[in-house]
Amino acid sequence: MTAPAEFWTASGHQLCDRDAAGRLLPTPDLWRAFLARPELLPPEEACAAERALHARLLDAPLAVADPALLADADARENWQVFLAFRDRVQAAGTLEAAWCGLYRGDVRGVPPLFLQMLTHLIVRAACAGVSDAFALRAAELFWRPQRAALTQGATLLADTEYLEGQGARTGALGRLLAEAGASPLAEIEVLSAANAPGYAARSDAHDLALDIAEGRPGQQGLAQALEAFIVHLLGEAVQIRPVPVIEDANWTWHVGLDPEATAIANDLWQGRDVAQARLARILWLARLEFADPARVLARARERPVYLALAMDAAQQVRMKPQNLLTGLPLREDG
């Protein structure tokens, strides 16, 4: 199934330039988009110095600015955090390099919103050549938390923020999600062959659920989204194939795509007993193989890397794509 080329316009990707490799370059207009966020707009009670600082940065987003003259201590700290983030991203050269530097280093003190915005932009760049609507919907997991519902052979993921915004509406799927612990209720469509051609036009609404059960298009869609992200971010071509279980006497390496999957996979790998109810939280499994084994650490070379995605006890799915950056068995010496 295909989707039109233009999707996720809310990411702001059109405000970025690109280098020869297709990676994103920050521009003054991108920083103006950050400055337009409600979190950075001076409130009504803001002092004149804060209003002047904001106006100056809107005019010249890369200007040197000193929040020391701001009357409010919280405002001073907020602007110091933003300016440090801006300067760190600019110094990295590309958004991808900045994202990698942040997650390979220390992201403490960086607002989650800023990290989410960076991830959104990078995933959009990674998916620029992807036309499959199921892969694009699966890629939303990289920066948007989901709620899961398992019923009648389906493994449904629905956008948490969308569900919470639809609390007054009810319907069959809404009742299903409510029974599965996803409250409040919501009326939400599932992405299908029939509505896939319209995905791009409604992609910023995040109003379609995705079925990632075995044999469904969403299962392979998530694999395709991960392949696109890895080759874009790390320059490594990989093949990812969903599997129903891990049956491998020589299981060598795995990456959990979220904290729950990481904990469960670690316990299994170490031979610990895992209760069936906890094991059932695993929603998606796959094996990853690198196109160039020479780039892989010796102990994992010629062996598959297993990937796992899970929901937590509250049936929330919080994917952490940074686990791929820090967890894949790649050599650091190039």
Set down the secondary structure blueprint.
Elements: E1 17-18, E2 24-25, H1 28-35, H2 48-59, H3 73-92, H4 95-104, H5 112-126, H6 133-139, E3 146-151, E4 154-159, H7 160-165, H8 172-179, E5 189-190, E6 208-211, H9 217-234, E7 238-242, E8 253-256, H10 259-269, H11 276-279, E9 282-290, E10 305-310, E11 316-317, H12 322-327
Parallel strand pairs: 5-6, 8-10
Antiparallel strand pairs: 1-2, 3-4, 3-11, 4-6, 7-9, 9-10
Helix pairs in contact: 3-4, 5-9, 6-9
Keywords:
single chain; 334 residues; alpha+beta; 3 domains; 4-stranded mixed β-sheet; 37% helix
3D architecture notes:
A hairpin with a 2-residue loop joins β3 and β4. By secondary structure, the protein is an alpha+beta fold. The strands form 3 sheets. The chain has a 5-stranded mixed beta sheet, with helices on both faces. A 4-stranded mixed beta sheet has the order 7-9-10-8, sandwiched between helices. The chain has 3 domains: 12-126; 133-211, no CATH class; 218-327, no CATH class. Helix content is 37%, strand content 14%. Mean pLDDT is 91; it is low at 182-186. The radius of gyration is 21 Å and the shape is globular.
Alpha plus pi helix count: 12
Ends: how far apart?
36 Å
Unreliable segments (pLDDT under 50, ≥5 consecutive)? 182-186
Backbone shape:
globular
Largest sheet: 5 strands, mixed
Strand fraction band?
A: 5-15%
Strand order of the largest sheet: 5-6-4-3-11
> Given the helix and strand composition, which structural class is it?
alpha+beta
The arrangement of helices and strands along the chain is EEHHHHHHEEHHEEHEEHHEEEH
Helicity level, as a percent range? 25-40%
Gyration radius, to the nearest Å? 21 Å
- Quantity of strands, as a count: 11
The total domain count is: 3
* Overall mean confidence score, pLDDT: 91
